[in-house]
Amino acid sequence: MKPSSLLFAGALILSVNPLFAAEGASPAWTEVAEVDVQLMGDYEGEWLDAPKGHYYEINKPLAAQVMNVRPGEYFLRFNQELDHRADAYFEGKGTLEGGVIRFEGNGWKGEVSKDGLKGTCGQGNKPPIQFSLKKVVRSSPTLGAKPPEGAVVLLDGKNLDAWEHGGGRPVSWHLLENGVMEVRSAANPEERKQGIGGDIQTKQKFGDCKIHLEFRYPVEPGKAGQGRGNSGFFFQGDYEVQILNSYGLEGRWNECGALYKTSPPKVNAARPPMEWQTYDIDYKASVWKDGKKVSSPRITVRLNGVLIHQDEEIPHATAHAFASRFKEPQGDGPIRLQDHSNAIQFRNIWLIPGK
User: Fold this and answer.
1) Could you tell me the CA-to-CA distances from 102 to 41, 56, 67, 216, 265 in Å, in that order?
2) Of 32, 160, 185, 223, whose CA is between 20 and 30 Å from 24?
3) Is the pTM of this model over 0.70?
4) Domain boundaries, position 98
5) CA quadruple 343, 11, 77, 142: dihedral sign
6) Looking at the structure, do residues 214 and 76 belong to the same domain, yes or no?
């Protein structure tokens, strides 16, 4: 079903997606600038006419990320390949003009349109080198993975029976028509007044486990950092793997894929807003004896199929407040999902308990 459109802010086109609206999703999903849907995201291509022996001729692949900053303003980053920590070829702002994002700076010049991303890179007195890229959607290899025999299904879209708020309060998050669970209460003062919202946790407790989880965040133009697409999920109630709209960011210790304020991801594998993403995690719980910690939790994390933590130790609770990081849980605990004021959606959550 195609989205309908109307004038927005005198220049942009606001895409009102009737499919999201029919599913009961919040405005963060139903009202999105059409250019964000069409142009924001990952691009891959190559250098076209680099001189023989030039670095760009030897290394022809070229990739770019186009990120929304605020309505009509974008940020672009060019690298040789995506999903690698590497110096950027170019970073700079882009401006929306007549449905096309145009950028220029440091010898680079180009535009992003529905036909792709094209431009040139200057060489001083020599002719500029041309490049051409196409938009790509890099779906996770485990997207839609079905729970194996013996798995504990925590969210299959039929109900929220596996979850509760703290203290046993029934879940007040939204189960949409398409079976997706959405948290959005913090952005809706009226729902807050009604007591809707807050973190949720599994009724069942777990220690060692493997978990599969799918999530996505909206665009939220004008927001940034921890205020954009923020959520997270916690093992034993206190060890967090961060969820954040970190698309195109550096991948720091409080961004998507991080063990919150403990370890940054090996690489920023966060995908663009609106796209479904996956976490596949092996978790080994802490071991205690006579009230003393014998070993800390250890964790292996794949975000969208990309290995971002390999048997990483979690030395303390991943609390925001420093003083709370050394108040650690002993024994099994719930899986907790965070309500952090953003309209995050979840689906297809299942877990395989350890021995």
Assistant:
1) 15, 23, 13, 28, 31
2) 223
3) yes
4) 40-136
5) positive
6) no
